[in-house]
Design a protein that fits this description.
This protein has 88 residues and is an alpha+beta fold. The strands form two sheets. A four-stranded antiparallel β-sheet has the order 2-1-6-5. A two-stranded antiparallel ribbon has the order 3-4.
Length: 88
């Protein structure tokens, strides 16, 4: 996923080496919740990334929806067989 495909939902500002404050936008996140199949709770998977440069508002981090789906990933992979002519 490149930056153009990301759904940004908030920002962060590093306070010191141990703490970063986060500001999330409920309106941007509301359509990205999923129900956890193990415990039935509604959840959202987010990724926090450090910005290359601090912006004009002092924000050092950005937050986006992580839409990685382990079930889809498992279905799309095929095992490698000995006949695939790989060099290793």
């Amino acid at each position: 996923m490149d930056n153009n495909d990301r759904i940004f939902v908030g920002y962060g500002k590093q306070i010191n080496e141990f703490y970063t404050t986060l500001l999330l936008t409920e309106e941007d996140m509301k359509n990205h919740y999923f129900t956890n199949k193990y415990n039935g709770k509604r959840q959202i998977r987010l990724t926090l990334g450090k910005k290359r440069q601090v912006d004009q508002h002092g924000r050092t981090h950005t937050i986006w929806v992580n839409d990685f789906n382990t079930e889809e990933q498992k279905e799309g992979k095929k095992p490698v067989s000995a006949g695939d002519h790989l060099p290793f």
